[in-house]
Amino acid sequence: MNKYITFLTAIVILAASFSSCRTTKTASGDTAQETSNIEIETAPAEKYLYTASTVAETLPQWTDFSASGNITIRTGSSLKSAMLLRMERGKYISISLRPILGIEVGKLYIDNDSVTVVDKYHNLYLKEAISDFIGQDISLEALQCLLLARPFLADKGQLTDRNAKSFKATPTADDGSWRLSPAKQPDGLSYEFLMSGNLLTAIEATGTAASVRYAGHNEGFASLVTADMAIGGTKAVIELNLNKSIKWNSGVTDKVSIPRNARRYSFAEIIKAFSSQQ
Known about the structure:
Layout: H1 3-19, H2 52-58, E1 64-74, E2 78-88, E3 92-97, E4 106-111, E5 114-119, E6 124-129, H3 131-134, H4 140-148, E7 152-153, E8 157-158, E9 167-169, E10 177-182, E11 191-196, E12 199-205, E13 211-218, E14 221-231, E15 234-248, E16 263-264, H5 267-276
Parallel strand pairs: 6-16
Antiparallel strand pairs: 1-2, 1-15, 2-3, 3-4, 4-5, 5-6, 7-8, 9-10, 10-11, 11-12, 12-13, 13-14, 14-15
């Protein structure tokens, strides 16, 4: 299997990992305790310096976004390519691989209907229904927030002042760290956002081997996204470094086309090929 398919499929698997964070809830009985003659100390007042509302106030509104940089995948060896990210809010995510002189050799395109991966160099492609990857638990806009380092509701999208009450916050620690999570988690899906002040620094999810960390916060997003995950049973690290040509609300549009006579791959074939080459 060639490296371009590896790059693009890894991002699809990351998205799928966070949509299938399954957890099983167990019931526990209450234990009665006798409290007479027990002296109770008063705990220090908890501080809520940051909440969903304070975070929402710092997030600029957007209709589209584009940025260029590099994608790196580390398994045992390391693969690296220049890339261009384009997104229209709630409509699509487009990641174009351009390793040589800005010429596109591969593309990942996710919209509300399907996931398409195209390898122009080897004349290969994958196209499957988006529901086969992420089901009904997570929206396209939530996936966009995953790339932009913005808290989200899995089925609705970005945190805003209108849905801030749908989140709950922990008290703020002395170092400014705290946690934010949906007040009501979707069935079988459990995740929370690790915050530093009003900035998202990581996402933790129950029941998945994937985790995401963010750094280089600037202009309403994080320029460095690092994800630890597994591809076909192989541990992998994906790093997106988007630090060039950052544009918001510029009217950018994009689409994907499948080359003539291209060979179609299935998702299962790609995973099998990736595993066999490790």
